[in-house]
Specification:
Helix content: over 70%
Number of domains: 2
Low-confidence stretches: none
Order of helices and strands: HHHHH
Number of helices: 5
Number of strands: 0
Radius of gyration: 20 Å
Distance between the termini: 24 Å
Shape: flat
Length: 149
């Protein structure tokens, strides 16, 4: 690992630790329009995404230096699997539109529970990570395609 990568990991890790400590000290859930209250969340996401980006870049460079293809088959599979949450959301939306199961009183609570669990607990928290992974894959594959003879 190069010196600048170690420094970047230390900075991004420090941002993550700082944000977690601010959240643990009772800063609570902040509104996104108030920078002072939302800063721990911005720091945490920036720190986590930064560490992931540096580690992926390091791993791909290490594979290339070892004579292997930088973009492995497992990395390609993870890229295609990152579209799975969006596909699930699209399928549920289409099924709801075709089936006509609106918010009538007979299915109100079942629909609220289904969409509450599906969206609030499973899909929405992982969307930023999936989008980041897709952007990172496209950027790294373009970089290594350009470098290969």
């Amino acid at each position: 690992m190069k010196k600048y990568e170690k420094i970047l990991i230390a900075v991004f890790g420090g941002c993550t630790v700082l944000s977690l400590s601010l959240l643990m000290l009772g800063k609570g859930l902040g509104y996104l329009d108030n920078l002072e209250e939302a800063l721990p969340y911005y720091l945490m996401f920036g720190g986590v995404f930064g560490v992931i980006g540096v580690l992926v870049s390091w791993r791909l460079r290490k594979r290339r230096e070892a004579g292997k293809a930088p973009i492995s088959a497992l990395y390609k599979v993870s890229f295609w699997l990152s579209f799975l949450p969006l596909a699930v959301l699209l399928i549920v939306g289409i099924a709801g539109a075709v089936g006509g199961s609106g918010f009538d009183w007979s299915v109100l609570w079942g629909t609220l529970v289904l969409y509450g669990i599906l969206l609030g607990c499973i899909l929405i928290p992982i969307f930023p990570f999936m989008l980041f992974w897709q952007v990172l894959y496209v950027a790294m594959s373009a970089k290594y395609k350009k470098l290969s003879p």
